[in-house]
Design brief:
The chain is built from 18 helices and 17 strands. By secondary structure, the chain is α/β, with parallel strands linked by helices. The strands form five sheets. It has an eight-stranded mixed beta sheet with strand order 9-7-8-3-1-2-14-15, with helices on both faces. The chain has a three-stranded mixed beta sheet with strand order 4-13-10. A two-stranded antiparallel sheet has the order 5-6. The longest helix is centred in the middle third of the chain and has 24 residues.
Length: 633
């Protein structure tokens, strides 16, 4: 089993959290007394009875724990699930969706592509909010293209607002994202949408890994939520037997941060959110206790990267805009999302406490294994009938998104084929119970990142194949195990993307460490050559071959105004920051076919030039001839 699919409680030799918590109670207990975390209530009651008289515990713990069922008692307590709308308007669960997957990297334009003209399967959309082709935005979209993502959609591109306040720019950005999600002609409810910060995001792994990991995270958490929150009985209009549905579920995943939004440190968004799934000592004995926060386990929402289905994200951004209208601060979207996450968890905890077995809860708290979140002393205003449930969760273990803030030392670039490095890396980072890191199975199953189509299939493709410009490492000799991958030794994860929201000075150095950087131009040329470009983008709308984003196309980008722009239009002049290979402007590596060519008399004989340019060149040639004639004299 790879570390990508292994829970930390399964690590050999790991002590469950109960061990540390029992010492805090003053009870004398040795590791031999601690049962496996899968131990149920009956098992724990035996352990507890060895230390506390069982008469104190009552009869409720003498039978094994069973799943929660809808509560029919305690009529005096409000039913929080019903009082605050908690069912999701879109019934299709993201973990059950079969996303239209792309061909492998290197597939030529005339080879098979997913054919889904009826949009039966969910498609993937990549949204990148930026008004211009900045260095950061160009690195974001270039890395996404190299990895084979669908054409990024630039939100707000070309809509600069000189003189606008930070708040006005934020409102415009969020409104455009929301409006895109509402465009039913382009986006269907079941489509997957990935939204990333434009200026500081580097993609590292292909979209197939992103989607599968997202679904695995959601699936695992939802199984846990069934046990934690139980089910609700929903009456049917025809009066037949009520339907049992899961009360709460996860549907959207944001990045996790070690730092909570500073203005809300005493509010639910910072206090009541669940604990991290990482071990409580993953950073050593000062985990979660170091004053500057760099040893905190990530557990707070960061809005820099999010993935979910369009229908779920739509109601989230509707609420963000509503809250932003109430809080006029420059980072009000961050503040609004933090507030939404916190209130969601307050409602969930109130409903859990309403239906939980009180004796079981007391025992679990005593043993330090309770699912409770901290709501004591929290003051929050809740409006009956208002939705606070959004299916929001965060990526605690950086399987999808790595946030750099307070975490610059949590990442190391390694080749997994180097056994010496992988065997000692966790020990070097002070990770308790260190193990040799293995390349996650979902990455190992991928074809070589340097797969290349044969030149014979690309004669009609642009850019045309060039043995020098398109030279890539041999795919049979270079797999994912021997490229340098950014790895988090503490969580044993290889993130899909890196969100460099920490020190801006690190971005140039980290960009050059990315596995694709030495071959970035050739890999981007491969991506462009693999697609139909604008022709495919247009034909997809007419029911032709399409790709993930239903509009199709590769080699360019969409704007939220539904305009198609090429990478050279957006990122002209950014080649040194993207490639640093001295091969010239993108698309003109072999010279510009329209570049003007002059004869010895300064006359234009080929290419294009304005009258002023031609006249200037002719004058230069005349002056040069006169100068040469004087030398001869």
């Amino acid at each position: 089993m790879s570390l990508a699919s292994t829970s930390f409680s399964q690590f050999e030799g790991a002590k469950p959290p109960i061990y540390r918590k029992l010492h805090a109670t003053g009870l004398a207990i040795s590791p031999a007394h601690v049962p496996h975390e899968s131990c149920d209530l009956f098992c724990y009651s035996i352990l507890l009875c060895s230390m506390v008289p069982c008469s104190v515990l009552g009869d409720s713990i003498t039978s094994p724990l069973t799943d929660r069922r809808p509560d029919t008692q305690k009529a005096s307590e409000p039913d929080y699930w019903k009082k605050f709308p908690s069912d999701h308007p879109f019934s299709i669960r993201p973990e059950d969706a079969q996303v239209a997957l792309p061909p492998k990297l290197g597939t030529a334009a005339n080879e098979s592509l997913p054919h889904d003209p009826e949009h039966v399967h969910p498609h993937l959309h990549l949204l990148v909010p930026t008004t211009a082709g900045t260095r950061g935005a160009c690195r974001t979209v270039t890395s996404a293209m190299i990895l084979g993502y669908p054409p990024p959609t630039l939100i707000g591109y070309g809509h600069r607002k000189p003189g606008a306040t930070e708040l006005e720019l934020t409102v415009d950005r969020i409104t455009r994202i929301r409006d895109y999600l509402k465009n039913k002609r382009i986006v269907k409810d079941h489509d997957f949408v990935l939204i990333v910060d434009a200026q500081d995001t580097f993609f590292q792994l292909p979209p197939r890994v992103l989607v599968e990991r997202f679904q695995n995270i959601v699936r695992g958490n939802n199984e846990r939520f069934k046990r934690k929150y139980g089910y609700a009985a929903v009456e049917k209009p025809d009066g037949s037997r009520p339907e049992l549905i899961q009360k709460y579920s996860q549907r959207v995943v944001f990045g996790a941060s070690k730092l909570c939004y500073h203005a809300l440190k005493d509010e639910p968004g910072c206090v009541t959110v669940p604990e991290s799934t990482l071990p409580p000592d993953v950073y050593g004995w000062k985990t979660d206790a170091h004053p500057d926060g760099h040893l905190n386990r990530p557990r707070w929402l960061n809005p820099g990267a999010v993935i979910g289905q369009a229908a779920d994200l739509r109601i989230i951004y509707d609420e963000v805009l509503r809250l932003m209208a109430q809080r006029h601060t420059s980072h009000s979207d961050y503040q609004a999302l933090t507030q939404m996450f916190g209130r969601q968890e307050v409602i969930r905890e109130l409903e859990r406490l309403r239906t939980v077995n009180k004796v079981k809860e007391w025992v679990y708290k005593l043993l330090g294994i309770s699912d409770a979140v901290e709501i004591e002393g929290i003051s929050v205003r809740l409006e009956a009938g208002h939705r606070y449930e959004y299916g929001i969760g965060v990526d605690y273990e950086s399987q999808l998104f790595f946030n750099q803030i307070l975490s610059r030392n949590d990442l190391e670039w390694i080749e997994f084929s180097n056994i010496t490095t992988t065997s000692h890396l966790q020990g070097q980072f002070g990770v308790p119970r260190e193990h040799r890191l293995l390349l996650p199975e979902d990455i190992a199953a991928l074809p070589s990142p340097f797969d290349q189509t044969s030149p014979s299939t690309e004669r009609s493709a642009a850019p045309s194949f060039n043995s020098t410009l398109d030279n890539l490492p041999h795919p049979e000799q270079h797999s994912w195990s021997n490229v340098s991958l950014a790895t988090n030794p503490h969580s044993a994860s290889v993130p899909v993307l890196l969100h460099l929201n920490g020190d801006p000075k690190l971005r140039n150095g980290w960009w050059e460490k990315m596995w694709f950087f030495p071959s970035a131009r050739a890999l981007l040329r491969r991506y462009v050559r693999s697609a139909h470009d604008f022709d495919a983008a247009q034909s997809a709308l007419l029911g032709g071959q399409d790709w993930w984003d239903m509009r199709g196309g590769r080699g360019g980008l969409w704007t939220d105004d539904e305009n198609w722009v090429t990478i050279s239009e957006v990122c002209q002049g950014q080649e040194r920051d993207l490639f640093d290979d001295d091969l010239g402007p993108w698309g003109k590596e072999n010279g510009d076919p329209d570049a003007p060519v002059y004869n010895q008399f300064g006359n234009l004989i080929k290419g294009k030039a304005t009258e002023e340019e031609a006249a200037k060149k002719k004058k230069e040639k005349e002056e040069e001839r006169e100068k040469n004639n004087k030398k001869k004299e």
